[in-house]
């Protein structure tokens, strides 16, 4: 009943104000005329992650393929096809991260879905790059429940060499509030798979809980930000705080219904800094701090699937609020899943449409 009431109320607000939650400054100006957007590569399949390293783009495709792309030529070179990847629905080979000192420690971390005794699961595996391919697979964490939907899973390595992993609730809502479950969480482990001694729950990789399906993760301004899929309402941008509860499934978006207010008070819930209804299917996210395109500085750049739009989310000085929103790309290339930023300030975006996915580059004319 609580959810039904919320959906009805949100529908009324949409009719009156065009959206449930809108920024007071509204849409800012469109991107400047000297910004160039073009296709760098095509013919890829369900691109999930793109990462910049050593003048190359590393790419995962959901079927299990890891590739490199040369941005100077647009040429794609396959590095590895992971045999035990099981691609079902939204599952398959998903997030990837490279060791922060990749030139010295050429380690590649990936998360993917697989079969274990007939059950659909998810695991994180570390490889070593030998200059040609990936070798020495080491399982860091496994046996995470998976589903055709709600698998997460973005990877991010912090400055102190901790690996953060977003997991979806695997279509079982109660997983998110269960600390003994690895689903509906943001996990934090050491790069060897061990559990850090300063995690909030002893001998537990859980860093935060109460998540539905977070698919974006980035550090900026001394904070960790996530983007999270809501149901039909309340996609969220959250700031991630150690040991905190983010409410799902008892809370959707802000704590603004009687049952939610009580649950939030009792469980010390963190509310999103921004939420959207109708949903956009928020996904990959990066922070722009380069000089190439000054208009984007001090902003989160957010990919969306349902909306097929790349958004600029301008942060306030403290980083605890979004004070302006701008569309960078909208509708031209279909679903946008992943994003990375090169050292020179160029922005690379991966589409997620199927058999002819593209890598788009945004720079100066």
Précis, in short:
This protein has 365 residues and is mainly β. The protein has helices at residues 2-17, 258-267; strands at 35-44, 47-53, 56-61, 65-69, 76-81, 93-98, 107-116, 119-129, 134-145, 155-157, 162-166, 185-190, 206-209, 214-220, 223-228, 235-239, 274-276, 282-288, 299-304, 309-315, 322-330, 336-341, 347-351, 357-364.
Describe this structure in words.
There is one protein chain. By secondary structure, the protein is mainly β. It has one domain (26-364): 6 Propeller (Neuraminidase). It contains two helices and 24 strands. The strands form six sheets. A four-stranded antiparallel sheet has the order 1-24-23-22, with no helix packed on it. Strands 2-3-4-5 form a four-stranded antiparallel sheet, with no helix packed on it. Strands 6-7-8-9 form a four-stranded antiparallel sheet, with no helix packed on it. The protein is globular. Mean pLDDT is 93; it is low at 10-29.
Please supply descriptive tags for the structure shown above.
single chain, 365 residues, mainly beta, Neuraminidase, four-stranded antiparallel β-sheet, 2 helices, 7% helix
């Amino acid at each position: 009943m609580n959810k039904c009431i919320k959906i009805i109320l949100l529908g009324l607000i949409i009719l009156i104000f065009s959206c449930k939650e809108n920024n007071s400054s509204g849409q800012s100006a469109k991107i400047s005329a000297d910004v160039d957007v073009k296709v760098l590569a095509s013919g890829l399949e369900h691109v999930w992650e793109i990462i910049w390293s050593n003048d190359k783009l590393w790419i995962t495709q959901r079927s299990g393929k890891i590739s490199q792309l040369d941005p100077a030529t647009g040429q794609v070179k396959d590095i590895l096809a992971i045999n035990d990847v099981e691609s079902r629905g939204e599952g398959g080979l998903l997030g990837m991260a490279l060791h922060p000192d990749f030139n010295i420690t050429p380690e590649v971390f990936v998360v993917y879905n697989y079969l274990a005794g007939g059950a659909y699961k998810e695991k994180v595996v570390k490889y070593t790059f030998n200059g040609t391919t990936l070798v020495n697979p080491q399982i860091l964490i496994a046996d995470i429940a998976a589903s055709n939907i709600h698998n997460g899973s973005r990877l991010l390595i912090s400055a102190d060499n901790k690996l953060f992993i977003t997991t979806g609730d695997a279509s079982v809502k109660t997983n998110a509030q269960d600390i003994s479950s690895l689903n509906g969480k943001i996990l934090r482990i050491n790069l060897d798979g061990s559990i850090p001694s300063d995690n909030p729950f002893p001998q537990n990789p859980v860093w935060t809980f109460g998540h539905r399906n977070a698919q974006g993760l980035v550090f900026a301004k001394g904070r960790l930000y996530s983007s999270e899929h809501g149901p039909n309402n309340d996609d969220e941008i959250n700031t991630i705080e150690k040991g905190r509860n983010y409410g799902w499934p008892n809370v959707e978006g802000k704590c603004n219904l009687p049952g939610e207010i009580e649950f939030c008070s009792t469980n010390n819930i963190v509310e999103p800094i921004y939420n959207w209804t109708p949903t956009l299917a928020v996904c990959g996210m990066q922070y722009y701090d380069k000089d190439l395109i000054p208009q984007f500085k001090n902003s989160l750049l957010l990919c969306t699937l349902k909306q097929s739009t790349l958004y600029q989310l301008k942060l306030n000085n403290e980083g605890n609020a979004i004070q302006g929103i701008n569309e960078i790309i909208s509708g031209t290339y279909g679903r946008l899943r992943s994003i990375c930023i090169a050292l020179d300030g160029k922005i690379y975006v991966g589409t997620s449409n199927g058999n002819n996915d593209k890598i788009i580059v945004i720079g100066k004319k």
